[in-house]
Amino acid sequence: MIKICKKCLLTSHVQGVIFDDEDVCDLCRKWEKRDVRQQELERVDRERELEATLLGSHVGGEYDCILSFSGGKDSCYLLYKLVKEYKLKVLAYTSDFDIPANTWDNIRRTIKQLNVDHYVHTPSNEFYRRFIRYLLKNQTKRGAVHTVCYFWLDIREGDILRLAMEKNVPLIVTGYSPGQPDPQRMLYEMPPERIAKEDWTPHELFESGLFDESERSLFWDPSLYGEDAKFPRIIAPFHAWEYHQADVMEKVVKLGLAKSKWYANPVLSNFTLNWLLMYSDLEKLGYNPYIPEFSQLVREGKARRTQWRLLFYLMDWMVRNKVLLGRHVDKSLKWLDLKPEELKIKRGGYVERFVRL
User: How many domains does the chain have?
Assistant: First the structure.
């Protein structure tokens, strides 16, 4: 029998989760026993560092920072704060791939209202189709969303890093909310050594013939810049500021950055391919892949349990029945020339090694 945590919505399908006799998960019990004072001191320390960074970012160049701007509620509100509260010269970066119409509406509204420069990168649909198709047929044990999105992040963040180097911008800001991405990859700041010393190129995937040699330039390689190169930092302010999901949704609507709460909803602003990824994970893992992320927000009092219990029910129903937004499952399968039975988890091999945290 499937158990759902009474406190945070985590399900017994999630590997490694343990429930007690009261149907409360072990992660919630650990959260209850946390050192609240120490945790708040750590957050305040991050906030102080963040304030010093943002207030000290007026470097006199063309731009003070680049914002990874997806058009979701968090990146819209973050752009507002950077421009209006910190008076920074921001270059907003958007990767124009599979962005829904309502999210483009958020992007245009926010850019126009804040009057910031907007750099739109349009990647090759053929390249994305090729690597997404391969990854879905060779998923890691953590499923489709983790496999595709983390590989995707390497490409997108590498592109922003190259843009920052080209324009001599010392700071990259992201709209990750608490719980995004995995803390091993980044908690408030991406480890500087990962930026300055690690080659993100999936060399074995090139050796397998998946990519053309000309496509190596799509992956971040710091060695191309020489030993004396100075690389930008990548930070996530919402990991330092106090955060509540509903507050951010209300603020972006009130500020006119999103037309309505419907447009600010993270379920609706995500890329349409995401519905296929959820379909695969529901089939292969047995649970919605976003439950761990949003259950953390619920557990920490940063999102509403009742809201997300209803939303997860609706999301799963749409995906399994391929109706309403779930219709994108079949559309994406057609675009990728895939059949449902070709969506497979394969432990080990190239993908397991190169889909980094």
Answer: 2
